[in-house]
């Protein structure tokens, strides 16, 4: 499934370069207009990130995200700064299909496991945004990619064994916003080690050839952001390739 992405800062669509808030590109099109265009091009689901919330550890654009869920015609999964159960309830009650938990899935897995049980694994995705260290080990970062982590991706995923977790979203930070190709080898390894997990890939897609390489892995979803904003191809072409 092709999942177009909208990243929000102060109510505007933006894209970051390698997760760096100081290297951002702003787009003039209104978020709802972007979402409706994605729907017209054949998308059925959209990934929305509250980057203000991710950076400040407090969901800050909830009303806009609920509007997107209610008005876009797309199923919405969203994350960024989600820290307590009331925020999750408000989003799900407002029409969001799935919430995406990032930093807390690393720093407080017990709470996230409780949410998986409370809301059901079909409603909660964990998002692990990784830097690749000098040894080639993927290390999840936290707090909007600002803080470096200490646990490996494999350590974090192993900790969720038996939790009921269904879906994991993995982003290679070093490739995000670069348009230079996805980390296919990383995703192959995840698929090999955790075949029962639904894998959503994110980061690096810059061409339809990149999309084809990811589709060959048969992931649960492929998130695409900057390539769509930069008109490298359309959602329609990505779905069809």
From TrEMBL:
The keyword Lipid biosynthesis does not apply. It catalyses: 1-(5-phospho-beta-D-ribosyl)-5-[(5-phospho-beta-D-ribosylamino)methylideneamino]imidazole-4-carboxamide = 5-[(5-phospho-1-deoxy-D-ribulos-1-ylimino)methylamino]-1-(5-phospho-beta-D-ribosyl)imidazole-4-carboxamide. InterPro entries: Aldolase_TIM, His_biosynth, HisA/PriA, HisA_bact_arch, Isoase_HisA-like, RibuloseP-bd_barrel. The keyword Amino-acid biosynthesis applies. It is found in: Cytoplasm. Keywords: Amino-acid biosynthesis, Cytoplasm, Histidine biosynthesis, Isomerase. One of its GO terms (molecular function) is 1-(5-phosphoribosyl)-5-[(5-phosphoribosylamino)methylideneamino]imidazole-4-carboxamide isomerase activity. Belongs to the HisA/HisF family. This is 1-(5-phosphoribosyl)-5-[(5-phosphoribosylamino)methylideneamino] imidazole-4-carboxamide isomerase. It comes from Litorimonas taeanensis.
């Amino acid at each position: 499934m092709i999942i177009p992405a909208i990243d929000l800062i102060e109510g505007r669509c933006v894209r970051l370069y390698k997760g760096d808030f100081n290297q951002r590109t702003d787009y003039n099109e209104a978020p709802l207009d972007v979402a409706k265009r994605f729907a017209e091009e054949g998308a059925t689901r959209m990934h929305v990130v509250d980057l203000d919330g991710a950076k400040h550890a407090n969901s800050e654009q909830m009303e806009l995200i609920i509007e997107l869920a209610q008005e876009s015609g797309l199923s919405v999964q969203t994350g960024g700064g989600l820290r307590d159960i009331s925020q999750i309830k408000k989003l799900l009650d407002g029409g969001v299909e799935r919430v995406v938990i990032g930093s807390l899935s690393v720093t407080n897995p017990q709470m996230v496991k409780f949410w998986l049980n409370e809301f059901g694994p079909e409603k909660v995705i964990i998002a692990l945004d990784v830097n690749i260290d000098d040894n080639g080990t993927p290390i999840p970062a936290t707090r909007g990619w600002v803080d470096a982590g200490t646990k490996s991706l494999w350590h974090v995923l192993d900790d969720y064994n038996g939790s009921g977790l269904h879906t994991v979203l993995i982003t290679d930070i070093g490739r995000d916003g670069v348009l230079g190709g996805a980390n296919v080898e990383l995703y192959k390894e995840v698929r090999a080690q955790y075949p029962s997990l639904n894998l959503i890939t994110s980061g690096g897609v810059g061409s339809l050839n990149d999309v084809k390489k990811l589709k060959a892995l048969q992931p649960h979803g492929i998130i695409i952001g900057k390539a769509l904003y930069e008109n490298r191809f359309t959602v329609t072409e990505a779905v069809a390739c």
